[in-house]
Specification:
Length: 388
């Protein structure tokens, strides 16, 4: 059954309207989240503040910059620059940066600030972060080590999410003139495509590598249901990450992989086009959704639509518009009394008998879910210069 058959598409006017609802919510959140960051997920649909020490802290500033682009209000710019200073401080002091998520942090917080305002400290912070990511490259196996002490046997692995960290490297290559950023991004993605995407287009969340031979040891999950299932957000990171790298590199292998991971994702969706947290679950299962995966995928579809011939681009745009219509109608926050977030029913990490994560943020707003929802609406309503 094709669940997209007959589903309505979000119109440009509806996208603008939904984006304005987001802008209003971001404006209401400014007092609470200018000198503080937003927690990775909400608690009973309300985000508490947090220090700038989580991997997710870049998404709230990204929302502020998207609101600034839509609305032009000086308050957004002021907050965005205060947050950029906080990210420079974090980079200089090395606060909770011993992992690969430099792109998730510094692209929406600082590359965006630099591109939109020319604020030099933001550029400096983003280049420092790119340097940190480069230092996590493991020549034996050719990948960026995701977590933990470099070279540690129990952490000699990369994860599919890293595809979203690579645009920081492409940006840094252009900005600094140092070709290593781009070269190592290319090596990482080659490793990732060799091992992470299964024959049916589903993906491993994490891949352990052999420290002696550089060969794949095994695929394993952390946040998915099972080592051999496909974590919905991992699938979404693959879709969007491949589209972004295709924009920079135009390697047809990335496009072919994009279509395979997308095809798998599309066949595993329930009727309202928003996946369960793992794609092993199908319509009728009593499991939470991950709305953020739908927003991330919409961004990937809209990115790829800008890079492909018209007929294919129309198909991608239509799939994105249908996904967004469902998100706007059934998942977005309509009443600020209910939540200070933008999109309900995200899942950060759900414990299963087979995975290794700590359960957090189940059926809540999640910071990246809000950011990518805003980005997808921004993309749908017209031309947009990506931060990624
Ligand atoms: N990058 C971690 C996550 O998507 O939850």
């Amino acid at each position: 059954m094709n669940v997209f058959e007959g589903k309505p598409v979000l119109s440009q006017a509806q996208a603008r309207q939904a984006l304005d609802v987001c802008v209003g919510q971001v404006r209401r959140n400014l007092p609470k989240f200018t000198r503080a960051c937003q927690n990775h997920s909400s608690i009973h649909n309300v985000y508490p503040p947090c220090d700038n020490d989580q991997w997710t802290c870049g998404f709230w500033p990204g929302e502020v910059w998207l609101a600034y682009e839509r609305d032009g209000g000086e308050a957004f710019k002021t907050t965005g620059l205060i947050l950029a200073d906080s990210f420079l401080d974090r980079a200089e002091r090395g606060v909770a940066l011993d992992h690969h998520d430099m792109g998730f942090l510094y692209t929406p917080a600082c590359v965006a600030a630099w591109k939109l305002t020319g604020y030099e400290p933001a550029r400096r912070a983003a280049l420092m972060a790119a340097g940190r990511l480069l230092a996590r490259f493991q020549p034996v196996g050719e990948f960026f080590q995701a977590w933990g002490e470099l070279g540690a046997p129990d952490n000699y692995r990369y994860i599919i999410d890293c595809l979203l960290n690579l645009p920081l490297l492409y940006w840094a290559a252009d900005e600094s003139g140092d070709p290593r950023y781009r070269t190592l991004a290319g090596r990482h993605i080659a490793t990732c495509l060799r091992h992470s995407v299964r024959d049916d287009g589903s993906t491993f969340h994490t891949v352990f590598m052999d420290r002696e031979t550089g060969r794949m040891s095994r695929g394993a999950t952390c946040q998915g249901y099972h080592d051999n299932s496909s974590w919905a957000r991992g699938q979404a990171w693959a879709i969007y990450g491949l589209a972004l790298s295709y924009r920079y590199v135009r390697d047809p292998v990335y496009k072919e992989a994009f279509d395979r991971v997308l095809a798998y994702y599309l066949t595993r969706l329930p009727d309202d086009l928003v996946p369960y947290w793992d794609m092993i679950f199908t319509s009728g299962d009593a499991e939470p959704r991950d709305s953020s995966s739908a927003s991330i995928t919409a961004c990937g579809l809209l990115e790829m639509a800008g890079l492909t011939p018209p007929a294919e681009a129309r198909r991608y745009r239509r799939l994105a518009g249908q996904t967004l219509k469902s998100l706007v109608d059934h998942y977005s926050v309509k009443n600020p009394e209910e939540s200070n977030g933008l999109v309900l029913h995200g899942t950060y990490s759900k414990k299963s008998p087979y995975n290794t994560c700590t359960q957090e943020g189940v059926d809540e707003c999640v910071s990246w879910g809000d950011y990518f929802y805003m980005e997808a609406l921004t993309r749908l309503r017209g031309r947009w210069e990506p931060y990624w």
